[in-house]
Amino acid sequence: QVQLVESGGGLVQAGGSLRLSCAASERTFSIYKMAWFRQAPGKEREFVAQIFWNGGITYYADSVKGRFTISRDNAKNTMYLQMNSLKPEDTAVYYCATNPRASGYDYWGQGTQVTVSS
Q: What is the Rg, in whole angstroms, of the alpha carbon atoms belonging to the chain?
């Protein structure tokens, strides 16, 4: 069983930047893909960005393209989300997720709060 530990959330003004990290606790866990999701108050959880562990192919939600960058450090089993030009509508709890298989996401972190003030 792998645990995901997120860090890096906080309060930032609009236009600012934050970097989120997500570390998988088990070095032997075979990661196929990792992703960031977010959930704002009163809204459903939504996809933000995804990265495939081998090859590093990435996908982004249209709402964050050009502002957010997802990356990973294979040796550390850690994923990052660099968030630039933040907007108040980016305010949400951000969750990381992973899976050793292609379909779905079975493992989730506890979430980290990102608040962007206007």
A: 13
Distant-in-sequence, close-in-space partners of 55: CB < 8 Å, separation ≥ 6: none
pLDDT digit string, tens, across residues 10-54: 999 999 999 999 999 877 778 899 999 999 999 999 999 999 999
Other Cβ atoms closer than 10 A to 25: 12
Q: Which residue has the tokens 């990265």?
A: 51
> What does each C-alpha distance from 57 to 5, 22, 109 come to in angstroms?
22, 18, 22
- Reference 42, options 3, 86, 76, 91; nearest CA is 91
Query: Is residue 67 within 8 Å of residue 85, measured between CB atoms?
Result: yes
Are 19 and 8 within 8 A, CB to CB?
yes
